[in-house]
Automatic annotation (TrEMBL):
<dbReference type="InterPro" id="IPR042197">
    <property type="entry name" value="Apaf_helical"/>
</dbReference>
<dbReference type="InterPro" id="IPR017251">
    <property type="entry name" value="Apaf-1"/>
</dbReference>
<feature type="repeat" description="WD">
    <location>
        <begin position="1005"/>
        <end position="1046"/>
    </location>
</feature>
<feature type="repeat" description="WD">
    <location>
        <begin position="1091"/>
        <end position="1132"/>
    </location>
</feature>
<dbReference type="Pfam" id="PF00619">
    <property type="entry name" value="CARD"/>
</dbReference>
<comment type="subunit">
    <text>Monomer. Oligomerizes upon binding of cytochrome c and dATP.</text>
</comment>
<feature type="repeat" description="WD">
    <location>
        <begin position="656"/>
        <end position="697"/>
    </location>
</feature>
<dbReference type="GO" id="GO:0043293">
    <property type="term" value="C:apoptosome"/>
</dbReference>
<comment type="function">
    <text>Oligomeric Apaf-1 mediates the cytochrome c-dependent autocatalytic activation of pro-caspase-9 (Apaf-3), leading to the activation of caspase-3 and apoptosis. This activation requires ATP.</text>
</comment>
<feature type="domain" description="CARD">
    <location>
        <begin position="1"/>
        <end position="90"/>
    </location>
</feature>
<keyword id="KW-0963">Cytoplasm</keyword>
<dbReference type="GO" id="GO:0042981">
    <property type="term" value="P:regulation of apoptotic process"/>
</dbReference>
<dbReference type="InterPro" id="IPR015943">
    <property type="entry name" value="WD40/YVTN_repeat-like_dom_sf"/>
</dbReference>
<dbReference type="GO" id="GO:0097190">
    <property type="term" value="P:apoptotic signaling pathway"/>
</dbReference>
<dbReference type="InterPro" id="IPR001680">
    <property type="entry name" value="WD40_rpt"/>
</dbReference>
<keyword id="KW-0547">Nucleotide-binding</keyword>
<keyword id="KW-0677">Repeat</keyword>
Length: 1259
């Protein structure tokens, strides 16, 4: 131990022995490692307190400096302040080895060194930022071996000074790197005389500590001061650290350029470029405080705990944008006026920085002065350029090229200017990007906006004018960062500049829609129409809603790659729409140059279906839900992701890779701050709904897939309910503050598919595969009652299970509604009596149901792709929502009941307006149809959804004739012009011929015993031929009901064809699922030929126009070409990967097209059977098929240059090149066939949701 310390202990020994309690002090000394357990035991054995104190001091006198310091610290900690003072002056200044004492490293040694060097104390309110502090210390350790500079730079108020002081508050750092001490000099914006005074006082301090007797004359000039400092630093204090705080000017730094160790804090990182010395290490202080740290600071100021702060605290922290300065300013003000939370929040929100005055040692009176000071040091021309940055959006990073357009300067010049802004902490740079992106801190933006409030409009106008000058011919489409910026923010700048005419011209233009949708996707575009709606509506609210509707309903198409033709999509808009008007003009212009476009003539008969269609995931969507404020929708499904998007526009807000397996359900908490998900991976997760960060994982308790999760409806007592496929522990309640479940509801012994809280959160209903619903009391988790749903299906035996899919509560909480099989039941909660049942078609199952929280409506999701709305007071169906192309898994009303969402296997979420969905009286047609082209007159015949036969005018879609409702389903139809009649074939085998338009029955033909699948008149109209599931073809002289039966096939006969249209040729070709093709003479009924053509079912057959060949296609994945003369197989065409569903010869009989169930079309040479082209190889669409489904029909144009095909949509192809020329997307899907006019100008089809399309080629 040092001599001084030893003699001090001996001098103070008597007083210490009288007062100290050794056992208290020894705990600290043991943890400091200066006392052993054995030594403590030896001292504790002494009989009295005084004896123990004597023994401790005896031992201490034999130990080293560390023991003395540890003893001193123990006295301080145990409140023996007066005794500690006796020892203070003789504390060893340099302890031989680092020791751990105060947790912050603030040992007496450190405190002495720092206070002697003038390093400021910690602020009254201090929150540690260990990660940043350690990063600065790591840089300082690099100065251990040789002199150099470390620079901490950051914007005004980012906490640079506190960080620098904290970094040197470390025992080991000072001992190992700076044993000569640490000296602090606060500089600021000083002129030369003031700077000289500062250096004089530093020199005096250094000389005094070395030799208090010798007093030198203070240096009289900066040059002399520099030399004096050099001498002191190199000779007297060779290993000390000089901290220069808040440097603005490099001339100041040159005064200190004396080959010593220096830490600089500044707003300008380029200052140290001008000085010599190694290790100019930069430490950029970009990240502000996170929310929790900022709340901690406020809590310390107002002497409270973070969790007890008022709600305004979080909002204040958000407005402070992470700035330590602003948080501290607000905290200090609140300490004086603790009731002013909302007042200061308003000041921040209104950017009233002048009102937020200092109450700290900061150099500027208010935040705005601090910011202004940074800008003042720029050259005047650069100040003007910096002002231009006022127009940037918050949290948006811009590439230099955007500013090069704005400032009309070369990109290299712009980068130099931006580098200067970055150096002065007036701008930040994202270096993870190439090229670099630049951005402002929110506070800097707020300051600029406040400073330049009167010029905002002109600044935005400058942006727009510079863009227009630079891109006068067409907008940028490169897809790079600059292009993305202009495409995304041009409308924003126009709106802010109040350039409403330019905004109308841009946003009411189909060209802009195409450009922006292709580069940014539809969500951003729809958002523009919503955001700037007020401005656009002043010009024309109708046009604005037409563009918005077009995007909302076609958004899922615009996300497809390859990108669809926007003009063709827009031709499906109503005739009175501006979108359609522009599309037609463009289509006509392009058609004159040879491009194909098709106008949908009869679209006026179709009402708008869903309000918005979003395509959030690849793969089925199992669950989607509204947030409680209705502004957001969350969805999840087979893609293992969770996605959140705006309910108005579909714009993505958040996407999370949520689970390791399919995500089965998602739910918002009642305050919308949390999102829960559950999955087949057996985990339940809770997420922050704003940031997407994971807050909790519950993975231990469910051992099987978790099917459903739901939060309580109110925050009064927030709980999460989950249910799973477990055998016993299959329904649980979780309190999010506890690691394990709060309660398990026992009762179901089969999987629980769904759980749902009653509106007041008193009960939880659970729906199970055991055929019951159980109602549990939430408070006790006890079963209250069971409703036996299985008993509602008396026809089901013990073997067939009744799975209850889900349950929902009426708005008043008095009824519980559940779905099972093809039915929905409404039960009284008190009595468990069934009040009502809704039975859907036997072919469909109810997947989900949800009761409207504000009315008597119930939404039902069905497996046959439909959503239905029912009124549960009147038991009437109110509406059909058709549009989904696959099973619908979920439906949910918005909290105010005005909207309804549905999600499906077709990968879309659709939004419907509850009041606008069309009622079930809206007629939809069945896809089995016939069309007659007679000059300009087009006639369409098809059955409707009420099983009536309709004959319509093909041009307008208007109904010319409608039959009575038939008792048996109509399965096929055929039109005849001479006589004017229509035929229908039914499921019960009946064939009827009706006169058009009178509807009089001309004949009813009985004979078929099963469904009639196809019917066709002979060219003269006197003979009718029908085929059936009963394996026969019948040839009727229909006026006399004479009939010949062609028998021989073993399976159903889907189609047949006459070998030619000549009245004298009576040969007929039939094919069947039995793999055979047969030829018949319709006059005699004789079988002329019979061949076993394929191993599998024959799906299509076509005779070549020259009558020499016919082709067959089969489920065995082959097509074959046969000679009509020899009946020999001429070519077998292999290569399709799936069932070959359709075929067609070209009109010159030289080519053959075949289409399969994978959506692939192949073109073959008829001459040698070689493959000429494969169509649509490269453009698989989002539904993972080449054609959106099976290729069901094919037709060549009369000149054989074009081919049209149907599948999920209609496509037109260039036959020579095998390339798609155009695609028409119907509202529904799964087109069965297309009827083509002889001149290849009109195309007619019906989709899966019953909409008739009459398409005319645009000329």
């Amino acid at each position: 131990m040092e001599e001084g310390a030893l003699s001090c202990l001996l001098r103070s020994r008597t007083m210490l022995e009288q007062d100290i309690k050794a056992s208290y002090l020894m705990d600290h000394m043991i943890s400091d490692g200066v006392l052993t357990g054995d030594e403590e035991e030896m001292i504790s054995k002494q009989p009295t307190r005084r004896d123990q104190a004597v023994a401790l001091l005896e031992l201490l006198l034999r130990k080293d400096n560390r023991a003395y310091i540890s003893f001193y610290n123990a006295l301080v900690r145990e409140s023996y302040g007066d005794l500690a003072n006796l020892l203070h002056n003789n504390l060893p200044l340099i302890s031989p080895e680092a020791h751990k004492s105060f947790s912050d490293g603030g040992t007496p040694y450190v405190q002495t060194v720092l206070s002697q060097g003038g390093v400021p104390q910690r602020p009254v309110v201090f929150v540690s930022r260990p990660k940043l502090v350690n990063q600065v210390r790591e840089k300082l350790y690099r100065l251990q071996k040789e002199p150099g500079w470390v620079t901490v730079f950051g914007m005004a108020g980012s906490g640079k000074s506190v960080l620098a002081a904290e970094a040197v508050r470390d025992h080991a750092l000072i001992e190992e790197c700076f044993p000569g001490g640490v000296h602090w000099l606060s500089i600021g914006q000083l002129d030369k005389p003031d700077l000289l005074v500062k250096i004089q006082s530093l020199c005096f301090r250094l000389e005094q500590s070395q030799d208090p007797q010798s007093v030198h004359r203070p240096p009289s000039s900066l040059d002399e001061a520099k030399e004096r400092m050099r001498f002191l630093m190199l000779r007297r204090y060779p290993r000390c650290l000089l901290i220069l705080d808040d440097i603005w000017d490099n001339t100041v730094l040159k005064t200190f350029d004396i080959q010593c160790r220096i830490l600089v804090t500044t707003r300008d990182r380029s200052l140290t470029d001008s000085v010599s010395g190694t290790h100019t290490t930069f430490f950029p202080l970009e990240s502000g405080l996170d929310e929790d740290k900022a709340l901690e600071i406020l809590a310390l100021y107002v002497n409270s705990k973070p969790q007890k702060l008022p709600d305004d605290a979080r909002s204040i922290v958000r407005e402070c944008k992470g700035s330590p300065l602003v948080v501290s300013l607000i905290g200090a003000l609140l300490r004086e006026f603790p009731s002013r939370w909302s007042y200061y929040l308003r000041q921040l929100q209104q950017k009233q920085f002048k009102r937020i005055r200092k109450s700290s040692s900061y150099d500027y009176d208010a935040l705005d002065q601090a910011m202004a000071a940074s800008i003042q040091v720029l050259a005047e021309n650069h100040r003007e350029l910096y002002k231009d940055l006022t127009v940037l959006e918050k949290d948006v990073k811009v590439p230099a090229k955007v500013l090069s357009v704005l400032w009309d300067l070369e990109p290299e010049e712009v980068e130099d200017i931006l580098q200067e802004f970055v150096n002065k902490s007036l701008l930040f740079r994202d270096c993870h990007h190439r090229p670099y992106l630049y951005y402002l801190h929110d506070l800097q933006l707020d300051f600029l906006a406040e400073q330049n409030r009167s010029q905002i409009e002109s600044l935005h106008t400058k942006v727009v004018r510079q863009y227009q000058q630079h891109y006068k011919d067409s907008p940028p489409t490169s897809g790079d960062e600059e292009c993305l910026y202009w495409i995304r923010f041009l409308t924003y700048h126009m709106a802010k500049a109040n350039l409403s005419q330019e905004l109308y011209a841009l946003m009411f233009s189909l060209d802009w829609v195409r450009t922006k949708a292709q580069i940014m996707g539809p969500g951003h575009l729809i958002n523009d129409y919503v955001e700037h709606g007020a401005i656009l509506d002043k010009e024309n609210s109708e046009v604005r809603s037409q563009f918005q509707e077009f995007l909302s309903l076609n958004g899922h198409q615009l996300e497809q790659r390859p990108f669809p033709d926007v003009v063709q999509l827009a031709l499906s808009q109503p005739h009175n729409s501006e979108v359609y008007r522009q599309a037609l003009l463009q289509a006509q212009d392009r058609a004159s140059k040879g491009k194909l476009y098709f106008d949908w003539l009869n679209k006026s008969s179709v009402e708008s279906l869903s309000r918005l269609v979003v395509h959030p995931h690849q793969g089925s969507i199992y669950s989607a839900c509204f947030s409680h404020n209705g502004a957001k929708i969350a969805s999840c499904g087979a893609s293992k992701t969770l996605r959140v998007f705006k309910s108005t526009t579909g714009e993505k807000l958040l996407e999370i890779q949520a689970h390791d397996d399919e995500v089965l359900c998602c739910a918002f908490s009642p305050d919308d701050r949390l999102l829960a998900t559950c999955s087949s991976d057996r985990k339940v997760k809770v997420w922050n709904a704003e940031r997407g960060s994971l807050l909790r994982v519950f993975e231990e308790e469910h051992e099987e897939q978790v099917n459903h999760c739901q939060f309580t409806n109110t925050t009064r007592r927030l709980l999460l309910a989950t249910c799973s496929n477990d055998t016993f522990m299959n329904a649980k309640l979780w309190n999010l503050n506890k690691p394990s479940s709060q309660n398990t509801m026992f009762g179901h012994l089969e999987p629980v598919n769904h759980c749902c809280f009653s509106p007041d959160d008193t009960y939880l209903s659970t729906s199970s595969s055991d055929g019951t619903i159980k109602l549990f009391e939430v408070s006790s988790a006890n079963e209250w009652k069971t409703i036996d749903v299985k008993s509602m299906f008396p026809e089901s035996d013990e073997q067939t299970e009744v799975h209850v899919k889900c349950s929902t509560w009426s708005a008043d909480g008095k009824r519980v509604i559940c779905a099972a099989r093809n039915a929905v039941f409404v039960f009284d909660v008190e009595t468990a009596d069934m009040l009502m049942e809704i039975r859907t078609s036997r072919l469909s199952t109810v997947q989900y149901c949800h009761a409207c929280p504000t009315s008597n409506l119930l939404a039902i999701a069905l497996s046959h792709y439909a959503v239905e709305l029912w009124d549960i007071e009147t038991n009437k169906k109110v509406a059909d929502c058709s549009g989904h192309l696959s099973w619908v898994h979920g439906v949910q009303f918005s909290p105010d009941g005005s909207q309804l969402l549905s999600c499906s296997d077709d990968q879309t979420v659709r939004l419907w307006e509850t009041k606008k969905v069309h009622t079930s009286s809206a007629v939809s047609l069945k896809r089995d149809s016939d069309v007659l082209f007679n000059g300009e007159v087009v006639t369409v015949a098809a059955a409707d959804n009420c099983n009536r036969l309709q004959v319509r005018d093909g041009k307008t879609g208007s109904v010319m004739f409608q039959s009575e409702e038939h008792p048996s389903r109509i399965r096929c139809t055929c039109i005849c012009s001479q006589p004017s009649a229509v035929v229908l074939g039914r499921e019960d085998g009946t064939v009827q011929i009706l006169e058009v338009p009178s509807g009089m029955a001309l004949a009813t033909l009985l004979g078929h015993t099963k469904t009639v699948l196809h019917c066709q008149f002979s060219p003269d109209g006197q003979t009718l031929i029908t085929s059936s599931e009963d394996t026969t073809v019948r040839v009727w002289r229909w006026r006399s009901a004479e009939c010949k039966v062609l028998q021989g096939h073993k399976e159903q006969i889907r189609r047949f064809t006459l070998l030619s249209n000549s009245p004298t040729d009576t040969r007929l070709l039939s094919w069947s699922f039995d793999g055979t093709v047969k030829m018949w003479d319709t006059e005699s009924g004789q079988k002329l030929q019979d061949i076993e053509a394929h191993q599998g079912a024959i799906l299509a057959c076509h005779v070549s126009p020259d009558g020499r060949l016919f082709t067959t296609t089969s489920a065995d994945r082959t097509a074959k070409v046969w000679s009509c003369e020899s009946w020999q197989c001429v070519h077998t065409l292999s290569g399709h990967q799936d069932c070959v569903r359709s075929c067609r010869f070209s009109w010159d009989s030289r080519r053959l097209a075949t289409g399969d169930d994978n959506g692939e079309i192949r073109l073959w040479s008829v001459k040698d059977g070689s493959l000429l082209k494969i169509c649509s190889r490269d453009n698989k669409d989002a539904m993972d098929s080449l054609h959106g489904g099976w290729v069901t029909d094919l037709h060549f144009s009369p000149d054989n240059s074009l081919l049209v095909s149907t599948g999920g949509y209609i496509k037109w192809w260039d036959v020579e090149r095998g390339e798609a020329l155009q695609t028409f997307y119907p509202m529904g899907a799964n087109l069965k066939r297309v009827h083509v006019s002889p001149d290849f100008s009109t195309f007619i089809t019906i989709d899966s949701i019953g909409i008739l399309y009459v398409l005319r080629r645009v000329v």
